[in-house]
Amino acid sequence: MTYIEKAVDIVREDLPGIYYCASEGSIAAQKTFLLLIKINIGLLIVLAILSAINIGSIKMNYQYLIPLTTSILLMISIIITFSTEFGKYEKKWYDGRAIAESLKTLSWKFMMKAEPFFGLSKEEAEAKFLSDFKEIKNVIRPMGELFGGDTQANEHQLTDKMKTVYSSDLETRKGTYEKNRIKIQKKWYKDNSGANSKKSEHFLWVIVSFQIVTFLSALLMISNPNSVFNPTGLATTAIAGLMTWIQVKQYKNLAESYGITSTELSIIEATIPNIDNNERFSSFVAESETAISREHTLWRARRTVQ
Prior knowledge:
By secondary structure, this protein is mostly helical. It is 75% helix and 0% strand. The chain has helices at residues 17-51, 65-86, 89-111, 122-139, 143-147, 160-166, 170-223, 232-249, 251-269, 278-304.
């Protein structure tokens, strides 16, 4: 039986409960944050459409509708802006992912008996894990503040599956790590690198299209200054909205960093069949986790400095 055939399947629920909570909380905060951004951009585009209408060309009885609608939409936009800021959804997104990724790395190092658990007895390793776990959980921000007090039952911090893998032989741990950590992460980075690259190119052409529309509408207004509708402001606002969305999503940067990490993990993966002792395997896992953690650290740093 090869080491891959001896692999133990690891699913998300086999990792610490708070990891699951932090991951889900981060995803929920991300979705809320991005939804609010989308709504605000949409409102600004609608406002641009309204401002592009020549009120003087409308019948007197209905002239008040445009400024009234504009005022209402502006008020909604202001409320959404304050909700986005005071809801701290972006911060919860970053902090939640930071906690989840740190706990995930710690869990894999524990299961693989890698540093800082290499050479420890089972009792010492478990005590070390719980100590480091508590430090990670509290260092960024208390979990209760992040996710409303839901910490997914602290008694599940060190799961039975994690203990089983920790106690297994080297070949089983090698297979488990390659199958459930390296291959899954490598595929995730590869798929998302391609997806972000395509989206970056897609949005580039959309922006260029709106720039062309802006140019043509400006020419149109020169020849017909009394037009009922002036699309120049609308196209300009759409471009600004798209640029804001690209800045938030960072498609190009993510495509590059994910691609680099995927390649690095492929190189690392190729060395695993030759590992024949626990010391070398500990160094191997440390190198792998460093590669994965480096991408996340850069991701967090790019977003923090915005």
